[in-house]
Records
---
Amino acid sequence: MSGTDKTAVSPATHAPDPETSTADADVARTPLYDLHVALGGRMVPFAGYLMPVQYPDGIKVEHLHCRAAAGLFDVSHMGQARITGPDAAAALETMVPGDITGLGTGRMRYTQLTTPEGGIRDDLMATRFQTHVFLVVNAACKADDFAHIAAHLPAGHALEVLDDRALIAVQGPAAEAVLSAHAPDAAAMTFMSMMALDIAGTTCLVSRSGYTGEDGYEISVPADQADALARLLLADDRVRPIGLGARDSLRLEAGLCLYGHDIDLVTNPVEAGLGWSIAKRRRVADAGYPGAAVIATAFADGPARRRVGLLPDGRVIAREGTAVLDGNGATIGHVTSGGFGPSADGPIAMAYIRADLAAAGTAVSLDIRGKARPATVAAMPFVPHRYKR
Amino acid sequence: MSTRHFTKDHEWIDLDGEVATIGITDYAQGQLGDVVFVELPEVGRTLAAGDDAAVVESVKAASDVYAPIDGEVVAGNEAVVDDPSLVNSDPAGEGWFFRMRVTDAGQLDELMDEDAYAAYIAGLE
């Protein structure tokens, strides 16, 4: 038995994201590293960090537990920073298409750092406060993102990287009960809001957000308090630790993009199906961010290709890179994320395909190991979102 | 009771008369994680040692199962097609993949026995 991936001699060495993995010699550890090892986490290099891909229960059990109760995720490898200055929201709007100046205090939004060609440098979460904007960006991109932002901020603004903070996500239907047992104000928070909360004597910055499709929270905590906070939350029977493997299957079922796979420098937000994240006033050529003209054209004319969901017939799995074929066997696109959805109870995938074939219900084929396998274009998410609106 | 043989690619082989049963080891299923799909070779196919024979997909990755020796496929285990989790729960028993009529049983002598395989995987850690 041997992996069919070029990199995978043994699945043990197969990190979920080999492109962004680095050699063991220069991998960092998050403040929760010792806890992951104590919990039996299988540690793999990912985006420059040694991270747990799974714990002894395995990816399927972890995934289903998160949807049934609550999962705890270490997302400390992601980048946290704040933009300060007289109008930090307007400063960020010079780099992203999202409506940041329209956010109320403590409200957050999903947006993208764009290129002059309308491509995506990274996707990120931005939260507006009176004195600054708080950012969370992807681990693999954070050094480039922060250099880019710092270099392009208008005069009088500065980027402060918060590398002394960990980030812990608690996701699932029991997340509210779990967190509000320690911080009662968490229960009243609405989706995409953020506030400072005291949890067991530590001031944390808590948002009601996440990337699993479930209700839940992300907790920015001082690095030296992260281990104690994680252990406190895990002491609740409803909470189990969740690794990168289930994090990926949860976000795929939720229809959410993974940077470097479903979106990248050569995809624009419109063809990626992220047009919802761009307010009307910013869909114009002179909106004042990189690529605004390209993105305005994509809105006006419609993109040539679109990100879609795919449901393969049967049980065979369509992995990233799988060619999508039309009825004549011609290639009409490629899978960008694909796997098995434990809650969907079957294979699911995301792909970019020709826009004229992108309607839900369209029959296509997938070229898997040389055989054409039938599949259907499907609406996303594959599993309904359960955010607390 | 025949001797079980093992390959470096983590297949096991039991020979009973001239028919060999092939599966993947407990070590392999543990590394793969939850198995969600198995594709078996067609009965009647002639395989040479090293040929792609079956495919096993876990939630993490797809892997090939190779024919460990030369022969003709005489049976596939439909039970693992219907319930791929059998590969995880009973890899050395009910989770077998396929059976071959062996052309040259002498090829088995080049494979590892149980002790040699145990030493081999210990060296992989």
---
Amino acid sequence: MSDDQELRVSKIRSGTVIDHVNGGASMHVLSILGIKGGDGDTVSIVMNVPSDRLGKKDIVKVEDRELSQAEVDVLSLIAPAATINIIRDFEVIEKRRVARPEEVVGVLSCPNPQCITTEDEPVETRFEVLEDGVRCCYCDTIVREDVAELID
Amino acid sequence: MRHDHIINAKQLSRADIEEVLDRAAEIADDPAAFRQRHPGALLGLLFFEPSTRTKMSFSASIKRLGGDIVDMGPVEYSSVKKGESLADTIRVVEGYADALVLRHPMEGSAKMASEFVDVPLINGGDGAGQHPTQTLLDLYTIRENAGLDDLSIGIMGDLKYGRTVHSMAHALTNFDANQHFISPESLRLPRNVRYDLHEEGATIREHTELSTVLDSLDVLYVTRIQEERFPEESEYRKVAGEYRIDAATLEDARDDLTVLHPLPRVDEIDHDVDATSHAEYFQQAHNGVPVRMALLDLVLGGDSA
């Protein structure tokens, strides 16, 4: 992170810094993490700062929360280049890249209005992760563009 | 057959398909030998939308194997009308029957329902999704008439929403078949089916006019262009005529062309085709009984004939 970007958001004592999120996608990151703003999480966001790798990137800092592997896996769908930094006492104690999972369960809603998962049935959505999109395991609908729009 | 549930044609290997078709041929040759094959077996019929052929042929099939049906009856007289979920309905009926057949308007319904039951569940059509047992009887009919390898098949009509088309396209990837898809641009194969065909390395061609490919076909599989799928009736009128065949159309076809249709037809096959040697769609419907008998025999545990 450059000095200029450091100035935009101060260091956090503990929690998670998600760096290299595609420019403008940080709000979708918050959706994946279930952060709606009303539940007391302290969150800092930097949007559309210059990035050598991405052109423009977002950075999301979530205080006092370390992401689960499942959350990190789902992040990969909308932020495949993201790096996850786990912070304790102002130090980065773990740094990892996101990895694409084979399936995501209960995170995305199926855009096909004729899919059984859109009915009031006791079933979680399940999507197979493809090279370039996701596929509903129930109705087979493939979504390649705007996967983030499907986040519940 | 390794599968407890029959949900999707994609799950059927060539060996699975041939096992069902071979058993169906044995049954067709000597139906009496199978008459008491499964005495007392009960087949649960859960039809959430109208059906004539699928429902009646399953009913006839289990009865011809010595079993019987338990029928949910029309949706309007069932607990579904009270707001019961499909998951609950299916779990209740599981306790009444040895196997279940589900027809439901929502895509993925059979897949979901199968996750709630231990008895074999057979997809009798899930919305615009899949109809694997129709495909098995279609393949049986094709095998009888043209064989399943070195096959050139034209599939014409509503390819986007036609569940019989989707199942057929998947199943044909097991065989040496050239698949020609003929439809208006707006009713081309859906993205998920194309994806699977591409992954399987299937040989497919897409056309908007039957005339470009008719003379090369062994089989022409016709489905209805569904007027209700078009936003404007005028749009439907523009294309519908292009996808109707009559005896005159078939003068350009090979003499041994087999014409199939999952039925019901409306006007996409003129009645004057019925009298030609090409018409096999009524025999195709009749084949539903031996094929579904074979499938039920296998899922109910009839490993050896």
